Task: structure prediction
Amino acid sequence: MKDWFRRHHPPSFQAVGENNREIPDDLWTKCPGCGELLYQRELEVNDWVCTRCAHHFRLRAPQRLAQLTDDGSFEEHEAYLRPADPLQFVSATESYREKLEQARKKSKLSEAMVVGTARLNGCPLVIAVTDFRFMGGSMGAVYGEKLVRAVDLARERRLPVLTVSASGGARMHEGMFSLMQMAKTTAAFAQLGRERLPHISLLSDPCTGGVTASYATNADVIVAEPGALIGFAGPRVIEQTTRQKLPQGFQTAEFCLQHGMVDMVTPRRELRPVIGNLMQLLCGSVPVAS
Ligand SMILES: [Zn+2]
Result:
């Protein structure tokens, strides 16, 4: 377990920056929210939240797992599953296989989805986390398969499921095979619900496309991080299609809360106690801490 984190979590780990760009491994990081230069060590201590404007930087899957699970409790499952190339997809510049190889090298992960078992405030759970660095956290056939197997494991062991999503949606390189994952994951979570096991979904920046339109918003409680972009199509596409000016703050977590699409917007620092409490409440096995 410790080895897993060491392998995926280099000592001077960086957050994933805006516009899918990595923040340079410097001592100082410029906040995309307020433009302030922030000392990296301070950012790290503050869970990668800007100390000045509270901008939430994107987290890698290992960072998220470290933040939301009890120390040393995460055990990865289905790590051996790797994406295939069912369509032999080649774009104008490069093949899907080449893109996958680059994503593997960059993230040191085999897919955008990492699943496993862990504990949160002592309570066992199944956790599934997306890493946006791996092809924009896009959902392909193996992403969907890992998630469904995680749900099956939760049903077998009678555990709640926590999903953490940061995704651009379905992976176009796999065409219909990726779109099918929307139905497949939704069906798996519906079965989990029928067996009265809870699913808590945490939406982080950005959560869009087929992931928002399937399992990520198909949960007992939907929690979002402040300022996260949450939607299906991007605002520019919607404006062009509807020929209407969109309201201010459209598709932010706060806007979604006001319009009933998410249940709560919770700052990163409070996620652990809030999700831990929700798990205990929904599982009904442990008294809720005051
Ligand atoms: Zn800031």
About this structure: The chain is about 35% helix and 15% strand. The longest strand covers residues 199-207. Residues 175-194 form the longest helix (20 residues).
